[in-house]
Amino acid sequence: MIKIFPLIFILLWSSAFITTKPIIDNSDPFSALAFRFALVAFGFFLFSLYSKEKIFVRKKNFFESFFSGVLFHGFYLGGVFYSISIGMPTGIAALIVTLQPILTNALSGPILNEKVSIKQWVGVLLGFVGAALVLGFDIGSKIPTAGLVATIIALVAITFSTLWQKKLSNNLPLSVSNTYQALGGCVFHLLIIFLFVDPYIDFTQTFLIAISHQIILVSFGAFTILMFLIKNNSASKTVSIFFLIPATSAFMAWLFLNENLTNLDLIGFLITSIGVYIATRD
What we know:
With 282 residues, this protein is an all-alpha fold. The protein has helices spanning 5-24, 29-50, 59-85, 90-97, 100-112, 118-135, 145-168, 174-196, 205-232, 235-240, 244-257, 263-280.
């Protein structure tokens, strides 16, 4: 069962790109994310109580998980949602964030003392090339400067969140750790709203369906699997599967949204799959 977790993660995480646009079409990005992670934190809290896990933990463990949530749910997701909301093409935003495995591989050695092999580097580079082919580059697109900056911040945040999560390994139950991480994300977005944003959410049927998908399948499902994989595998191997996400998202957009999928995209799928196989196999 554990061996199928990466596949489940890829499918669930990739599906989030399909529902991001309907969410930001009906709300500002930070209100949507604050609402999402308030419900996620409450859900994990209830599950922790149901599982009879110890909710009140040491201050050190609390702040470690809380800060991880600020990085991942705050800076990373906030950066991606904000960049798309102001006109950054979703594909280009995804491609920039897809640089994460390269940064993680470069930093996991000095930070985590992990040995990153030549084989892993080859797999990572192939994965990036394949993802680039799937997404392509829309040269005619007007990329907003603020959107580009926000996406780069998101890239740095998810990289350091992954390294931080692997390094701290505080052995908290996943439900408890996820509670405090979601709380960190919620507080971050509430602070952004208080300082910079005029909040609004239009609770249309489309918004409720899209946000429910991201809460249940992505935050409760995919994120929990990711934390499990980070805890039980090397950081460099875990993040290599992220290269499959842009390709899978493109396939889902073709399947559900009737977006074009070219022969070049199919070649990219193949190259990406080969790269991830090389980078993650023992």
